[in-house]
Amino acid sequence: NFEHSLVAAMLRKCLALTCALSGASALTVRPMVRSGLSVCRPALRMMCAEAAPAEPAPAAKKEPAAEVEEVPPFALLDVRVGKIVKAWAHPESEKLWCEQIDVGEKDEEGNVVPREIASGLRAYYPTADLLEGRSVLVVCNLKEAKLAGFKSNGMVLCASNEDKSDVKFVDPPADSQPGERVVCEGMVAPPATSNQMKKKKLMDKAAAELRAVDGVACFRNVPLGTAAGQCTTPITAGTIN
Prior knowledge:
Layout: H1 2-22, H2 37-51, E1 79-89, E2 97-102, E3 115-119, E4 135-139, E5 145-147, E6 150-152, E7 155-156, E8 158-160, E9 167-169, E10 183-184, H3 194-199, H4 202-207, E11 210-213, E12 216-219, E13 222-226, E14 229-230, E15 237-240
Antiparallel strand pairs: 1-2, 1-4, 2-3, 4-7, 5-6, 8-9, 8-15, 10-13, 11-12, 11-15, 12-13, 13-14
Helix pairs in contact: 1-2
């Protein structure tokens, strides 16, 4: 009859809309003539509930990744106490001293094998006798560099005042021995390789935070030193490189 046909039409429209929303295929609805609207209404509720899309499961919460503490760049430098055993003026540069520095390295027979290093210090230390016999700090894990044709295997650390008009060596403690590693308290790690030093620009990163503070060599305001004490410099305030 008319009432049943009307209910069936309403059911078909409801199912068509629900299927379109859920991606389900269309279903055929036949009118139920036995019980009138009291039968159709429960059927409508049941079919709409079956066709409705399921609620999506809540996304699992991701735990925040643990922060990895970065190794301070100075801790990756192989800074050692060195002793200048010989110094001579570079024959082709007015700025460079050529030096042989004992950094504790020896051959198989136990003989000292000094490193050859070039330093641009002639404007600040005009004669070789101001260098020879002096204890210094040497960065030993840099890649070999050619300075005016001279193969340099390391770098001597010096402090300078703010306008760079004065440059002085950073001095290790008096009782330190050649080859002894210079560290910063609480920042000790195995030295980086020379390739890592170059690729990650570790020397530049460390130098950006090296300072002379009241005549003491510091990294991030923490003094550098050996078992014999702190490293010092005549420059009371300035940068270190």
